[in-house]
Amino acid sequence: MKKLSIFMIAAGLLLIICGNVFYKHHQNPDDSGGSASITTLNGNWSVKIPAFMGGVVFLFGAIFLYVDADIKRKNKGLLQ
């Protein structure tokens, strides 16, 4: 569970950073599309996943990491 939470934290940070760096506002609504993937439109990168989703993934990863550490701490106390 610790590896999953670290992966989620890294993925969340990557989504936050890349979502803000590579997103380009399109003037033509036909160019914006509706898919949720990284595509190239007219040679420019465009991220279709909103940046707040990176924050959500980061938050869940941090919660999982905290819960994993708390469970290990409680189990260590029970074994002694």
UniProtKB/TrEMBL annotation:
<keyword id="KW-0472">Membrane</keyword>
<keyword id="KW-0812">Transmembrane</keyword>
<keyword id="KW-1133">Transmembrane helix</keyword>
<protein>
    <submittedName>
        <fullName>Uncharacterized protein</fullName>
    </submittedName>
</protein>
<feature type="transmembrane region" description="Helical">
    <location>
        <begin position="49"/>
        <end position="67"/>
    </location>
</feature>
